[in-house]
Design goal:
Rossmann fold, 9 strands
Length: 271
């Protein structure tokens, strides 16, 4: 586990700015996800962003008047988020810490907790459960938990859209394992952009059922726009805006889930 942590930490330390820019290059994920989150999050509320990376969502909600605390494994991400907050004139508490050991920070309780990144990398089921339990331990009764997953189909979809290497490397251990896991309905535990866990779509809701949460929403974060993102971004802004509004209407249709590379579960903590 320590080696995996070191691998993930090193990746994000080396790619902090690229991770910040990712949601500018792929804006529909952020636009649609923030749209769903803003149904619940209000100015003045306390937000804990676990695995918040360089702070894209933290800063978005800090600007809206929330009291935001970011925690991330990567010191590079934490330093970047602090500097961005300073540049943009917003208040942000930020700490470098493993998501499995949040209790050491004594952060208190929050109205909203984000767990949007750690489950991309934790391969052991016990660690995945621990991460969710740590998030819940910092959430007020009735508070909202926002958890994201990378879908097992993500690697396939990424290659289809971007001309990747899976077809040419289908005999390699990692590519072969990914292809086979999807066919078998299993999660992929292996290497991709770093040490990763890609959840099969059918396994996410059963995993979440063990926690004291009332499910509010479960959706693909890129929605119906995912397959044609590159082409759509070349169109006039008015047309793009129209497609975004259509995507919002379709966002929670279960038959569209596997079009997305990322999925979000929003749940309310049961008192």
């Amino acid at each position: 586990m320590e080696d995996a942590n070191s691998t993930v930490k090193a990746y994000y330390d080396a790619n902090t700015e690229a991770e910040w820019l990712r949601l500018e290059e792929h804006p529909f994920e952020f636009i649609l996800t923030a749209h769903m989150m803003e149904r619940y999050i209000r100015p003045g509320e306390r937000v804990l962003d676990i695995g918040g990376g360089p702070g894209r969502y933290s800063l978005h909600f800090a600007k809206k008047g929330c009291e935001v605390t970011l925690v991330d494994l990567s010191g590079g991400n934490v330093a970047f988020a602090r500097e961005k907050a300073r540049e943009e004139g917003v208040s942000l508490e930020a700490y470098e810490q493993n998501c499995l050991a949040l209790d050491e920070l004594n952060l208190g309780l929050f109205d909203h907790v984000f767990l949007m990144g750690p489950l991309y990398h934790l391969r052991q089921r016990a660690d995945q459960v621990r991460a969710v339990e740590q998030a819940l331990s910092h959430l007020k009764p009735g508070g909202k938990l926002y958890i994201t997953f990378i879908m097992a189909f993500a690697g396939i979809l990424f290659d289809l859209k971007n001309g990747g290497n899976i077809v040419h490397d289908s005999a390699s251990p990692d590519s072969s394992a990914l292809i086979d896991c999807i066919a078998k309905g299993e999660d992929y535990l292996g290497r991709a952009f770093t040490s990763t866990c890609f959840f099969h779509a059918r396994n996410i809701l059963p995993f979440m059922e063990q926690f004291p949460l009332k499910r509010l929403h479960f959706f693909g974060q890129e929605g119906i726009l995912a397959p044609n993102e590159k082409e759509l971004l070349l169109r006039e802004q008015e047309e793009i805006d129209c497609w975004v509004e259509i995507a919002k209407k379709y966002l929670e249709l279960p038959e569209l889930l596997c079009l997305s590379e990322h999925a979000m579960y929003i749940g309310e903590k049961i008192e």
